């Protein structure tokens, strides 16, 4: 069985949980608390599994995989149905572009270790850190919203009428955006897609509140 090292509130791990559920792949979740006692990701045992000291890590039984987008592509190869990438080359590129807006442009500037560095090394106050967080989310979501006019085509998801890697990345990012009080009114298509995803069991079971390590 696949073993996913995860943290309930990690958006990167959340992406992978969604994909595993969409593809109906059985896995066991192994929580790695990113905050308690300075962060369990820094423990020697976990650091050996993932030298970046990040989640997720996927133990496939044949080897260890890190980086959520690489894991999503791996799942697409070992379990091609249902597809999370369109059949045509242009569609695949468009979906990857949307996913990368989140995974490479928004999330890296706002992940926990960056926010901790702003706090601990640069002595940035919380209100300024929150403003930083919201700035990069809003910049990325604005572009995402505009690109949806090319890909969603009035469909229920980011690309037509089936969930893709883009939806796997978007939904966790909106969870984070809401936690930090980002205004989502300017993004009607994003909100529509997020609401539809929230109605589906695969997304519900992947949500932070549904995880065994979730905290009140």
Characterize this entry briefly.
This protein is α+β, with helices and mostly antiparallel strands. It has helices at residues 11-22, 44-49, 68-78, 89-110, 112-120, 126-151, 165-179, 188-198, 201-206, and strands at 2-6, 27-31, 57-59, 64-66. It folds into 2 domains: 2-82 and 206-210, Glutaredoxin, CATH 3.40.30; 89-202, Glutathione S-transferase Yfyf (Class Pi), Chain A, domain 2 (Up-down Bundle), CATH 1.20.1050.
Task: Describe what this molecule looks like in 3D.
With 216 residues, the chain is α+β, with helices and mostly antiparallel strands. The protein folds into 2 domains: 2-82 and 206-210, Glutaredoxin; 89-202, Up-down Bundle (Glutathione S-transferase Yfyf (Class Pi), Chain A, domain 2). 55% of the residues lie in helices and 7% in strands. It has helices at 11-22, 44-49, 68-78, 89-110, 112-120, 126-151, 165-179, 188-198, 201-206; strands at 2-6, 27-31, 57-59, 64-66. Helix 4 (89-110) runs antiparallel to helix 6 (126-151) and helix 7 (165-179) crosses helix 8.
């Amino acid at each position: 069985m696949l073993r996913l090292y995860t943290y309930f509130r990690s958006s990167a791990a959340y992406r992978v949980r969604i994909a595993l559920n969409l593809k109906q792949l059985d896995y066991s979740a192994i929580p790695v608390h990113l905050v308690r006692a300075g962060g369990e990701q820094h423990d020697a045992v976990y650091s050996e599994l993932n030298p970046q000291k990040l989640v997720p890590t996927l133990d496939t039984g044949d080897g260890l995989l890190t980086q959520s987008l690489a894991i999503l592509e791996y799942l697409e190869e070992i379990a091609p149905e249902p597809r999370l990438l369109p059949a045509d080359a242009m569609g695949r590129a468009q979906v990857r572009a949307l996913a990368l807006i989140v995974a490479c442009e928004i999330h890296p500037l706002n992940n926990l270790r960056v926010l901790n560095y702003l706090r601990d090394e640069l002595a940035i106050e919380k209100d300024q850190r929150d403003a930083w967080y919201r700035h990069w989310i809003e910049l990325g979501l604005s572009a995402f919203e505009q690109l949806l006019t090319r890909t969603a085509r009035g469909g229920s998801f980011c690309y037509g009428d089936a969930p893709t890697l883009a939806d796997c990345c978007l939904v966790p990012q909106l969870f984070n955006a809401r936690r930090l009080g980002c205004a989502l009114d300017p993004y009607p298509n994003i909100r529509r897609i997020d609401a539809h995803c929230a109605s589906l069991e695969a997304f519900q079971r992947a949500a932070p509140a549904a995880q065994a390590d979730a905290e009140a």
